[in-house]
């Protein structure tokens, strides 16, 4: 598990996100200033789901959104969550991941 402090990619680097621009801007605005949205009665989302085929830029888009919003990213490879030699190690790895994410969360 590694924390990506300053993702090197920005939204301007994407050519094909115009159809999603409004939604992406809302996500960025919320991440930049969650208290303003909460004052209006908005609840913090528990997360965002980006779906697509392999190699379509999902990870790059997530990093670009985080960079624009100036929020940290925790990058995890699937093998880092696999069970180790001991029973329950995989579940422990997942708990550790979520604990790290909660500590770094903007809200």
From TrEMBL:
A GO term for molecular function: ATP hydrolysis activity
PANTHER family on file: INACTIVE ATP-DEPENDENT ZINC METALLOPROTEASE FTSHI 5, CHLOROPLASTIC-RELATED (PTHR23076:SF58), METALLOPROTEASE M41 FTSH (PTHR23076)
SUPFAM superfamilies xref list: P-loop containing nucleoside triphosphate hydrolases (SSF52540)
Domain of life: Eukaryota
Gene3D superfamilies per UniProt: P-loop containing nucleotide triphosphate hydrolases (3.40.50.300)
Protein name: Chloroplast protein-transporting ATPase
Species per Swiss-Prot/TrEMBL record: Opuntia streptacantha
One BP term from GO: proteolysis
Domain ATPase AAA-type core: 49-105
Name of a matching Pfam family: AAA
GO cellular component: chloroplast thylakoid membrane
Leader peptide range in chain numbering: none
């Amino acid at each position: 598990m590694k924390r990506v402090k300053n993702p090197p990619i920005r939204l301007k680097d994407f050519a094909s996100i115009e159809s999603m621009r409004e939604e992406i801007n809302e996500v960025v605005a919320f991440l930049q200033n969650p208290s303003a949205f909460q004052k209006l009665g908005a609840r913090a989302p528990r997360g965002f789901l980006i779906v697509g085929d392999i190699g379509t830029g999902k990870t790059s888009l997530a990093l670009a959104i985080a960079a624009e919003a100036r929020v940290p990213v925790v990058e995890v490879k699937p093998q880092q969550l696999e069970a180790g030699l001991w029973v329950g190690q995989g579940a422990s790895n997942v708990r550790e991941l979520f604990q790290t994410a909660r500590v770094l969360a903007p809200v």
